[in-house]
Amino acid sequence: MKLYIDPGHGGSDPGAMGNGLQEKDVVLDIAKQLRSILLKEYARINIRMSRVRDQTKSLAARTQEANRWGADYFVSIHCNAYNGKTGGYEDYIYNGLSNSSHAAIYQKFMHREIVTKSGFKNRGKKKANFHVLRETTMPAFLSENGFIDYKPNADQMKKASWIKRIAEGHAKGIAIAFNLKPKQTATSSKSTTYRVIAGSFRNKKNADQRAAYLKSKGIASYVTTRSTSNPPLYRVQAGAFKQKKGADKQVNTIEQIGIKAFVVKN
User: Fold this and answer.
1) Which fold has domain 191-265?
2) Which of 111, 126, 127, 232 is 20 to 30 A from 94, alpha carbon to alpha carbon?
3) Quick check: 174 pLDDT over 80?
4) Taking the domain 2-177, which CATH number applies?
5) What is the average per-residue pLDDT within 7-28?
């Protein structure tokens, strides 16, 4: 899968500040750690970051870059601030989306894993009209990893161990949402996986519509990208099986609702 990681703010925009910390620095540390964990531990993931250093970059530049690349998921990392007396973790998806959208489904996994790692008060799963959530063409998620002006939260943000835990929470949520396989399993296992493909499209919107239709029929699926093709090919994967008979059964189920499906072995 193709993941776009967006450390918020940067350069002339420090973001929230407090207790000797700047948001732009904290979130960049988390983002770099997240990238490192994912590339080290999981197979078949490509990552781009909106910035890898302290630089100024507009919100439009970030979303346009992710859209042009054809990212499968956009993760924007932030810290909060309010009155110096409030702490906790919360996250957001676009407020124009339903609770059954892909973004909302992914948010459940992300929220569960990150809030557990944060050790902070759980302020809940939320929705907002933020630019990076609204203008991205792929499912997007924004995490607010504590309040930088709240000393108990800021004290944790200063610890490398906390930065790593937060990054691990993000990584685990992404891995669960996109069914990422650990590298050791992918490289050492000699077993074959049979993946059921219920459509291949040049237009991601068409792939998303196919996935939504399958969901309405009770068939779970998600959109993957074949980056080796030019332009990218968007495939709707509706299951992965260790036994071919399981894959064949899924193909039969899908074809009963009028959708052509096929099995890919790898």
Assistant:
1) Alpha-Beta Plaits (3.30.70)
2) 232
3) yes
4) 3.40.630.40
5) 98
